[in-house]
Specification:
- The chain is an alpha/beta fold and 259 residues long.
- It has a single domain, classed as Ribonuclease Z/Hydroxyacylglutathione hydrolase-like (Metallo-beta-lactamase, Chain A), CATH 3.60.15.10.
- It contains nine helices and 14 strands.
- The protein has a six-stranded mixed β-sheet. It has a six-stranded mixed β-sheet with strand order 7-8-9-10-13-14. The protein has a two-stranded antiparallel ribbon with strand order 11-12.
- The longest helix is centred in the last third of the chain and has 15 residues.
- The radius of gyration is 18 Å and the shape is globular.
């Protein structure tokens, strides 16, 4: 199963997967209906369904128009039903797309209703549709949830198979890497990942998807238990390094917020 991005708004990606035989697509977090409708018109396909990860407007604003145009189901958090979501999804529920099951993983933190979707296609690498929970080199701001909740989400996601393709929904990579290098300065894998991402952006290419293996090596929000990462984050805040993981994660997040 392959997803590809439709750039939308300022730095969003609407991830699309297409069944070429049926001439149908699925869209993830369509914040702009026109982008999806233009793709359908230009490629002679129709919208079979929508998946939502959380309630923020830049992930959901296109839903009413798309539902009206294509009369398609919308899967997502219960908090969005019945206004936008027609099929509420909870932790552990599955959605079948093109014969691939995607399992919902509750990841409160960025928002309280946030869901990620994990699938293991039979003949392809696993996939993770992670909205604003996990980015290449970063994670979402804690607008509603707590550091403990986001730490639980990061712990859960970093246990997924290393070859899992990570489909975040914003092009934040270069900014994330600038912060990551500030608190993990001797990380050679991070330095190479940054160089690779810069080359992609200079060529006007997308830096996503990432992989879980790359995030384990380079993402400070997956490296919340690495002592020198904690120390450098505390230094940015002029604080004493935290002595427990929740507080350490909170320091890393606050250091990024103020970076």
């Amino acid at each position: 199963m392959t997803f590809f991005p439709l750039p939308a708004l300022n730095d969003n990606y609407i991830w699309i997967t297409e069944n070429s035989e049926q001439k149908k697509i699925w869209a993830v977090d369509p914040g702009d209906a026109s982008v999806v409708k233009d793709y359908c018109q230009n490629h002679g396909v129709t919208l079979a369904g929508i998946i939502l990860t959380h309630h923020h407007w830049d992930h959901t604003d296109g839903v009413p128009e798309l539902r009206n145009s294509y009369d398609c189901p919308v899967y997502g958090p219960e908090s969005l039903a019945p206004d936008k979501v027609t099929v509420p999804v909870r932790q552990g529920d599955t959605i079948t797309i093109n014969q691939v099951e995607l399992m919902a993983i509750a990841t409160p933190g960025h928002t309280l209703d946030h869901l990620c979707y994990f699938g293991e296609p039979e003949h392809d690498a696993p996939i993770l549709l992670c909205g604003d929970t996990l980015f290449r080199g970063g994670c979402g701001r804690l607008f509603e949830g707590s550091p403990a909740q986001m730490l639980n989400a990061m712990t859960r996601l970093r246990e997924l198979p290393g070859d899992t393709r990570v489909y975040g929904t914003h092009e934040y990579t270069l900014a994330n890497y600038r912060f990551a290098k500030a608190i993990d300065p001797d990380n050679q894998a991070l330095e190479k990942a940054d160089q690779d991402a810069q080359a992609l952006r200079q060529d006007q290419q997308v830096t996503l998807p990432s992989t879980i293996a790359l995030e384990v090596q380079t993402n400070p929000f997956f490296r919340f238990d690495v002592p020198h990462v904690i120390d450098h984050a505390a230094q940015l805040l002029n604080e004493t390094p935290a002595s427990d993981l929740v507080s350490a994660f909170a320091q890393i997040r606050r250091a990024k917020d103020g970076f």
